[in-house]
Amino acid sequence: PGLPLSPAQCCLVLFLILLLGDGWVLAVLYAAWLYLDWETPARGGRRSNWVRNWAVWRYFRDYFPMTLVKTVDLDPSRNYLFGFHPHGVLVAGAFGNFCTEGTGFSALFPGLTSHLLMLPFWFKVPFFRDYIMSGGLVSSDKSSAAYLLGHEGGGQVAVIAVGGPPESLDARPGALTLQLRSRKGFIKMALQHGAALVPVFSFGENELFNQVSNPQGSFIRAAQERLQKAMGLALPLFHARGVFQYNVGLLPFRRPIYTVVGAPILVPKTPHPSSEAIDELHKTYLEKLNQLFEENKAAYGLPEDRHLEIV
């Protein structure tokens, strides 16, 4: 998932100020700590219930407003892999619902601990890494997901924005395009660990920002895709509203988000799944995700003639 660049930049600037100024001793000590703590983002992170329960997250929830919707109870003795759709520009719904208690995840799903997987790049930024880990963010590399899904006794939820950064380039009001057809790595991971797959659709996620026109084949889209392949980061050119006016700015629009958690797909543990088994489970996942969308779209403001487009 992506996050606003400014917090990470501020943390990096703070570290450089300390390193190049009178606080260099603190910077060196932190660098030593960073070296010793390097693997933590791939070993379950270091969440803080105090941070997750900050009052600011309730204001964040109410700004849109944002609602987490449970359709069925989930057995806390299992581990789960939540597939979050769509990515949106900044995965606001995934962050608000699974990295804070603003929408009451722990009360809705007792016994489960949620972790949102994020690009490893962000865990290299001094100070910022500690802040994002406090909410339950962990690295999105394979070893990190395996650590969570292989947890003995269950109770762990790995949340993956399956479409990834490329999908954010299609995030704009009214868009229902999901980059999912060829994405099967999360399916293989679920099979290897016997983790139940849960489709999650966040209605309203794409309504938060406008985006500069970037159709396939355009110069802007080509530049964005080259940057994404080179750095692993997508940079959608988005805009929405300002603090005191509603026409221009980088604040998201105040539009409701309903993040609906579907029923689990039980998965047999298969340490070495065949391509056929992966394809079959992937097909089942697509069917269940589409079913979740179709059953809930009318309740959250979408007309009957709107359908998901899987690419």
UniProtKB/TrEMBL annotation:
One of its GO terms (biological process) is triglyceride biosynthetic process. Belongs to the diacylglycerol acyltransferase family. Its main location: endoplasmic reticulum. Keywords: Acyltransferase, Endoplasmic reticulum, Lipid biosynthesis, Lipid metabolism, Membrane, Transferase, Transmembrane, Transmembrane helix. It comes from Podarcis muralis (Wall lizard). InterPro entries: DAGAT. It is found in: Endoplasmic reticulum membrane. It holds the Pfam family DAGAT. One of its GO terms (cellular component) is endoplasmic reticulum membrane. The chain crosses the membrane at residues 12-36. Its EC number is 2.3.1.-. One of its GO terms (molecular function) is diacylglycerol O-acyltransferase activity. This is Acyltransferase. It is a multi-pass membrane protein. It is an enzyme of class 2 (transferase).
